[in-house]
Structure formats: C-alpha cells, structure tokens
Specification:
Length: about 325
C-alpha cells in the first residue's frame, strides 16, 4: 500500500509588524517634511545676532524655539504643497521620487500629519509670544496662498517666496523683542529673490520643453528674462549690503566701521552661486547647494564668524 504523502503548504508570507510599519511611516513622513531644507530657517537667528542679544541665554533659547517652530511650519507647507502638486511632481525627474508623488505616503496621512503639526507649532508660537504667533500665522497663510493660486502667476510666485523669508526674519526679531531693522527686511527680500529666480532658471533649463507641464508659470519665463532679473537683484543685494555696512546708522549702532570688511564674503558667495547655476547646472535647491558645495558653505560660515567677531568684539 502506497504511503500517503503529507500535503504541502506554501510558506506564509510574513507580514510586517505594526512596529515596523510605524517606523516606515515615520521615516517616510520625515522625508516629506524635507529636513535638509530647514537651513532656510536659519534667517530666524539674524535678529539675535544683529540685535546684539547673542550673549543672553534667554534670547538664544527663544530664538532656538522660534527656529524649531518655523522648521515645523515649513514642513507642514511642504506636505500641503506636495499634495497639491503631486500630479505635476510626477512629471519631474527629481520630484517624482518624493513620497507623496511616488505613492509612498497617502494624501490622507499627509494632510492629517500636516494638521496636527500645524496646530502644535502654532500653539507653541502663541505660547512663546503673541506677536510671534501672529507672524507665524501670516507665514502659514502666505505659503498656503502660494500653494494655491499665487505659484501660477509669473513674478508674483517668486515674490511670494521672498516674502516668506522676510516673515521668517521678522519673526526672529519679534520673538526676542528687538526692533525690526529695515535693512534686515531689504536685504532678506533681495537675497531670497536672487535664490528664487536662480531656482526658476534651473527648473527651466532642466525640464526644457516639459517645463509648463510641471509648473504653469514657467511658460511665462525665459532664460534671458530670468538672467536679467537675477543680474538686477544680485547687483542690488551687494550694493544694499555695502551701503548698510558703512552707513552712519550701522556704525553708530555697533560702535565700529569695520563691518564693511565683510563685503568680500557676500561678493564671493553670490558669484559662487552664479557659477553653480551657470557652469554646474546647479541651483535647483539653495539648501542643497549650501550643504554640498564646500566653498559656498565655508564662505557663509566665515562671513558669520567675521560678523560676530566685529559686532561683539566692540563690547
């Protein structure tokens, strides 16, 4: 009598544990918050440095808290923007890899996380300081409008981005209760415009004929038009910085006329960035360029150290 063979069963496919799924979700969400872009929020510390409060522990703590809050809020806006732009991002060779565009993070999860994070960050902002909370809300509203209609309007799109940087700078001054210098606002909006226009130029060159499929307003730009605006903004930024460093107001405030010696750093920094844009086809992400280009990173670091040494060396 033949021996009956035991039935063979396929090995069950192990399902990921809830802990592993939670870790994967957290990692995917963190990537969507784009922590490498948080260097843009360092402008929050400008009020601390130029307001001559760097030696006060409480002011440092308040500025650091403001930086963390704006990192959270910028992450919220990245989530919202990625949800709105998910279809367009799928036409982009780099942005198509973002978790929302790639389908690794669901729309519901992204918007849910954005709501929770925004509520926590804005609550912390108002707890820290009422006026700071107002500025934080203004930032969220402005960037929400950018994610909606404003990013589709030529020139208004880059101006909106620049105003976002101005609000960051203003928030850093408000939270530690120092006057908001008109020089801080002028230089911030000019430098932010320079970076935003350079980014548009990079996108236009990289996407070529597919540019309008990714971003409607790109069809209204041309490399020549962008180069003209970049040249104007770069020149005006350097001139404004030079005037600021030698103005009687600045000399009286800091008690020194040596700040003009720092001019070579912004000169080199802007020229280096233009070199990356024109010769290395870079400039698509200012934060990435700052972190990956060693000469540019060294220039910014040395400028910061020189400014601190001159301003606080007179005390």
């Amino acid at each position: 009598m033949a021996r009956r063979s035991r039935p063979e069963f396929a090995e069950p496919t192990p399902s990921p544990s809830s802990g592993a799924s939670a870790r994967l979700f957290v990692i995917t969400l963190l990537v969507s918050l784009r922590p490498r872009q948080w260097t843009k929020n360092l402008i929050v510390f400008a009020g601390l440095i130029f307001g001559q409060r760097l030696g006060e522990v409480r002011a440092i703590a308040e500025a650091a808290a403001a930086f963390a809050i704006f990192c959270a809020l910028s992450g919220v806006m990245y989530l919202v923007n990625d949800v709105v732009d998910r279809e367009a991002d799928r036409q982009h060779p780099v942005k198509a890899k973002r978790p929302i565009a790639a389908g690794d993070l669901s729309i519901g999860a992204a918007l849910g996380a954005a709501c929770v994070l925004a509520a926590a960050a804005l609550g912390a902002a108002y707890w820290l300081d009422g006026r700071f909370g107002h500025v934080a809300v203004s930032y969220v509203v402005l960037l929400a409008c950018y994610s909606g209609p404003l990013k589709r309007i030529v020139i208004i799109d880059v101006l909106t981005i620049a105003l976002g940087f101005v609000l960051r700078a203003a928030a850093g001054a408000v939270v530690i209760h120092v006057p908001i210098s008109h020089w801080l606002l002028v230089l911030t909006i000019q430098l932010a415009l320079f970076l935003a226009l350079s980014k548009r130029r990079h996108e236009l060159r990289m996407l070529a004929g597919q540019a309008t499929h990714h971003r409607e307003s790109l069809g209204e730009y041309s490399p020549e038009f962008l180069d003209q605006m970049i040249s104007i903004v770069a020149a005006s930024t350097l001139i404004a910085y030079a005037i600021y460093t030698i103005s009687p107001e600045t000399v009286q405030k800091f008690g020194t006329n040596l700040l003009g010696l720092t001019l070579p750093f912004p000169l080199y920094g802007i020229f280096r960035y233009l070199y990356l844009v024109h010769r290395k086809a870079d400039g698509g992400s200012p934060a990435e360029s700052l972190l990956t280009d060693r000469p540019l990173l060294a220039c910014v670091a040395l400028w910061g150290l020189a400014v601190i040494a001159i301003i606080y060396g007179q005390a």
